[in-house]
Amino acid sequence: MVTTFIFDVDDTLYDQLEPFNRAFKKHFLRFKDEVDIENLYKLSRKYSDEAFESTGYEIKKLRKMHIYRISKAFEELGIRITEEEALSFQLDYETFQNEIKLIDEFPQIFELLLQRGAKLGIITNGADANQMRKIKQLGLGKWIAPENMLVSEIAGVSKPNKEIFEALEEKMGFSKHDVYYIGDNFNNDIVGAAAAGWKTIWVNFRKHAARDPKITATYVVEQPMDLLKLLDHLTKINL
């Protein structure tokens, strides 16, 4: 049996905190003694997920969402920033995302899976141009065929809706009983993939709390090396 592994992109394959941190230091260094940057980042992701579903992909709506998420994150920490500051932060955040790199273990992970005969794919939320730019910067085309990559804007539906998982399942022609989805966001990745009947690996590198006590990931890993070891084990079973 050949196992299929489908990956999330943001904060799964690369450290999304790194470009966020660079943008913070450029625009909000005056708050460095008041703000834990990783906590601010987590809050911004929370508000991003909250607003994403109703935003769509029009640039004006996206910019409003970008302003909203960082402003609300700061507000929760008792700090007010202007819309101009929020937008300037976002623009530099995007610029720094053009310099992202794969987490060190992932080239080895992809090579291992391909050597074991696994199929690889991607499902990622976001605007097509933005996500494909990240995919290109990360060099993912070396291991994953473009036809096995699905961006929510193109799919017309986003995670956690099970339809986006089912769309790639139909496109790639694998069985839902023979696939693992690997992602960092419990609601979008784990809840969504589970709703489609997929097995899941929660890469909980930031040690988030699970949001739905009724749903559990098939596996949970907290370090990239642990993911490599797990995938080595899972694919050995099928040799």
TrEMBL record:
One of its GO terms (biological process) is small molecule metabolic process. Keywords: Hydrolase, Magnesium, Metal-binding. InterPro entries: HAD-like_hydrolase (IPR051400), HAD-like_sf (IPR036412), HAD-SF_hydro_IA (IPR006439), HAD_sf (IPR023214). Its cofactor is Mg(2+). The keyword Nucleotide-binding does not apply. It comes from the Bacteria. Pfam families: Hydrolase (PF00702). GO terms for molecular function: metal ion binding; phosphatase activity. The keyword Metal-binding applies. PANTHER family: GLYCERALDEHYDE 3-PHOSPHATE PHOSPHATASE, N-ACYLNEURAMINATE-9-PHOSPHATASE. This is Hydrolase of the HAD superfamily. It comes from Trichococcus ilyis.
